[in-house]
Amino acid sequence: MFPVAKKRFNDLPFPYHAEFELEISTLTNLGVGLGRVAIADSAGAKAAATSSDTASAQSEIENPKSEIPSGWVVMVPFALPGERVRVRIFRNHKNYSEADLVAVVRPAPERIAARCPLFGTCGGCQYQNLSYAEQLKWKQRHVAELLRYMARIEFPVNAVMPSPCEFGYRSKITPHFEPPRADESAASFPIGFLKAASRFSLVDVPQCPIATDAINAALPALRDEIRAKAAGGGYQRGATVLLRHSLEGVTTNYEATITEDVEGLKLRFLARDFFQNNPFILPSFTGYVREQAAASGARFLVDAYCGSGLFALTAARRFERVAGVEISETSVRWATENAAANGIANATFLASDAAAIFAGLDFPAAETAVVIDPPRKGCDEAFLRQLVAFGPRAIVYVSCDPATQMRDLALLQPAGYALTAVQPFDLFPQTRHLECVVTLRKG
Q1: Taking the CB of residue 308, how many other CB atoms lie within 10 A of it?
Q2: Is 379 noted as a catalytic residue in this protein?
Q3: 61, 79, 293, 330: which sits with the fewest CB atoms below 10 Å from its CB?
Q4: Phi/psi class of residue 44: alpha, beta or left (left: φ > 0; alpha: ψ in -120 to 50)?
Q5: Range of the domain at 48
Q6: What is the distance between the alpha carbons of residues 17 and 19, in angstroms, rounded to a whole number?
């Protein structure tokens, strides 16, 4: 078998590991610093690329000829707007380049010391070097930009609702590991998360500052257990482990039944099931969704991706009747049990596939609000067609990815739904992620 040749580095417009200084002008919605530089035309760039002297390439960048256009984009993780930084190119794309941050020459006033010693190496957090107030401002701006450019809508975005806990909020983490290689000690192989800018390499994470104190207290024993088993040859391949903090404490058992308290309701589900992982902000989050749906004047509520009943059950007291719909029969059983355990008699749940998610509902559409909280990929076209055909009075769209949310919003608008509120929630401080709640009214 012949060895696979490595892909040749694209050396336009910069040679591999070319270094230069750059002004960072903005943050992308992926949490990456972005700057623009003037570059030579293709002949000039090629000449610079073939030179072994990166200083000559730097001269081309900093002292371009008058006819050379400016504006080549360079993406730099962990660099902040307003900073001048020194960067090192590691990849050129068709219309932008990626670079590592070598040094901060002039820091932004909002730059702070990261709490985690692994920040910049671990790929879990993007913003620990940015003050929390600024994190919220940039997240608000990112939602507004997505709304403007993807949905083609100019509409005010509310200030991001902050998390009560900036650190120690995450109630679930899932570290990964690969069994040690022959040349690797079982006492030192990484158990943690993907390295920044990597799809395969792991960084060892002994403690995680965004996880709850209880999870961090339980993590050392779990890591010791994994290493001991690995030393005995107990793993043939890599695995993902779970630590989930709930009212019962911390469990590592995927099949354990756990309980979360949300607005006084006790909601039970399996540890492996999806459930929001910031319990500290959940009361304001679910309360906002409930009040947005109720403010439409609707008498009935449909929770179209109900899971174990989070939105349906926390909203039930504001509606005459509530129906939760979910493709997973297991989730429907949990939601039904949670309704009974909390004495909620006006909520029913049914399992339905995507082809007939509103079939069997007897709620009049003109008096019904629909809450949707789809997976990160957003709603599929079949669901959106059914939603529009049903024609509810109001839609409260909850999303963990505003980009797919705005894509779907662009499809709902022509069906007669007008935007009335855009409210981001910071369920994930120190990271680029957020939840966004968009409210639409028919007509």
Answers
A1: 27
A2: no
A3: 330
A4: alpha
A5: 19-111
A6: 6
Contacts of 403 (CB under 8 A, 6+ apart): 29, 146, 150
- In angstroms, the CA 19 to CA 91 distance is 12
Would you give the end-to-end CA distance of the chain in angstroms?
65
Contacts of 150 (CB under 8 A, 6+ apart): 403, 406, 407, 409, 410
- Which of 68-72, 328-332, 333-337 is the least confident region? 68-72
Residues across the chain: 443
Whether residues 161 and 94 share a domain: the answer is no
Give the span between the Cα atoms of 390 and 358, in whole angstroms.
7
Whole-number pLDDT of residue 136: 98
- The whole-angstrom separation of Cα 429 and Cα 421 is 22
Residues 152 and 93 in one domain: no
Please report whether residue 251 resides in a domain. no
What is the mean pLDDT of the segment spanning 120-136? 97
- What are 48-97's pLDDT values in tens digits? 333 333 333 333 333 333 333 368 999 999 999 999 999 999 999 999 99
> So what's the pLDDT on residue 7?
72
Catalytic residue among 306, 379, 400, 436: 400
Query: For residue 270, which amino acid is it?
Result: L
Name which residue leads in pLDDT, 231 or 24: 24
Based on the number of CB atoms within 10 Å of its own CB, is 10 exposed (0-12), middle (13-18) or buried (19 or more)? Answer: middle
Q: How many domains does the chain have?
A: 2
Q: In what order do the strands lie in the sheet with 191-194?
A: 202-204, 191-194, 176-177, 239-240
DSSP string, 299-367: SEEEETT-TTTHHHHHHGGGSSEEEEEES-HHHHHHHHHHHHHTT--SEEEEE--GGGTTTT----GGG
Q: Which amino acid is at 378?
A: G
pLDDT at 326: 87
Decide: helix, strand or coil at residue 434. coil
Q: Which residues are registered as beta bridge partners of 21? A: 86
306 is an active site residue: no
- What is the pLDDT, as a whole number, of residue 213? 98
Write out pLDDT tens, residues 341-380: 999 999 999 988 656 778 778 999 999 999 999 999 999 8
> Distances in Å between the alpha carbon of 381 and those of 152, 384, 409, 421?
19, 5, 12, 23
Tokens 């050129």 correspond to 92
For residue 97, the domain's CATH number is 2.40.50.140
Q: Mark whether 347 and 418 lie in a shared domain.
A: yes
CA distances from 118 to 101, 125, 270, 278, 409 (A): 15, 10, 31, 22, 38
